Amino acid sequence: MSSGHESRHHFDLTELARTAMAERGLEPDFPPEAMKQVANTPRAASPELVVDESIRDLRGLAWASIDNDDSRDLDQLTVAEQLDGEAVRVCVAIADVDALVKRDSPVDWHARTNTTSVYTAGGIFPMLPERFSTDLTSLGEHEVRLSVVVAYVVDENGSTRDHEVYRAWVHNKAKLAYNGVAAWLAGEGEMPDAMAAAPEVAEQMRIQERVSARLKERRHERGALDLETIEARAVVEQGQVVDLRREEKNRAKEIIEDFMIAANEVTARFLEDRGLATIRRVVRTPERWDRIVEIAARHGESLPHEPNGPALEAFLVRQRRADPLHFPDLSLAIVKMMGRGEYVVQQAGEDAAGHFGLAVRDYTHSTAPNRRFPDVITQRTLKAALRDRPSPYSLDELNELAAHCTEQEDAANKVERQVRKSAAALLLSNRVGDTFDSLVTGASEKGTWVRVLHPPVEGKLVEGARGLELGDRVRVRLVGTDVRRGFIDFVRD
Predict the structure, then answer these.
(1) Quick check: pTM over 0.90?
(2) Does one domain contain both 211 and 85?
(3) Structural contact between residues 275 and 368, judged by C-beta atoms closer than 8 angstroms
(4) Most buried of 232, 271, 353, 432 (most Cβ within 10 A)?
(5) In angstroms, rounded to a whole number, what is the distance separating the alpha carbons of residues 250 and 262?
(6) At 295, which helix (H) or strand (E)?
(7) What is the pLDDT of residue 90?
(8) Which among 138, 98, 112 is positioned nearest to 27, based on CA atoms?
(9) How many angstroms separate the Cα of 429 from the Cα of each of 163, 241, 487, 488?
């Protein structure tokens, strides 16, 4: 147990993040060859530089991006067109990273090594150099950019048809943020300035909200799981952690989530139809389903003996309504029983493992090539298919890359989790002796854990755990923190 004397002024979360990355086989810095490549790339792809009649000119459409307030690595734009009746055509434009980041170039090799951007309270460690990811390969506001468009028609019942994939020039008319759009959609905030300045974008958002709700409803009818775990984001000002802010779901985030899931399904089917092997994103049918059945029984409910997505989703919906305070902890328990996501190779014609959590059979990652290397692989495969060329990757290469991407994603998650815990410990380091309301989130032979309601942090109950059970409310007192290890220790007050 620490005495809690670490000063938030003297602990370097950036150095902690860099050390954690290096220990897990991730490279926090770009090699000199990659930075030389960046210096030798003066501009983005443009219609003047890239002359190709197969690339459509869609710059006139009311494209907009929605992302976090501070995001600059914009991977996708969306636009929707109302058709006859209730049908709507949705177009998702994805940044053409491959146009500048050629295979086996120094930047590509670094991206292939890390396979993902790493987001920590100590700083962001992007997969691509910022000159690319936040500028030349980002679909920035008021910029003309080359993209790969995934288009599909959504029917009244939320099913998709008339799938298309093609390359196109696009122009981001409005850079929007999740919170601002969500508040406006709910009638709780003013129209965002970027939306007000761009004709047709407001109408676009209304159409997109309606059609995304159809996609979401259809997915949940098939058994997609609506889980809610607590993700606390450190608020850092002048190098100091000043707060932890819970990341909340909202309608704007759901719009993008719904459109990207559908785009990833379309992409997987498009490549399957052309006989190309793909790296799929898989969450397998839970091997520990019996434990999920036990969890439901503890809540007075019964689930089938065999894995059943719709039954599990119905249970989760009822629990969210009955006990919203404890629902994040229930969600986390279900997530742990389901197991991790992974990347696997699927050849055309093979049975798909599918994504149990999303209730989809065909699913790949394609919509975030600035941030994830599997999406770059998928993009290169898509562009080869559009040119009627063979896959740029052999089957052996794909298998090797799928395993590597899974391993590095796990490593990145561990780094992010470690720094997140250290940030929480750092925030509380000057509050030793304070008391907090909390919930018991874990009780076993290994120890008892509690979640403080505000700030949203979890710590170990090192004294006074006798008689406590999962879900109990308890008043606790902070007795120590260990910033380096991310430990927060409480006793029962």
Answers:
(1) yes
(2) yes
(3) no
(4) 271
(5) 19
(6) helix 289-298
(7) 98
(8) 112
(9) 54, 11, 10, 9
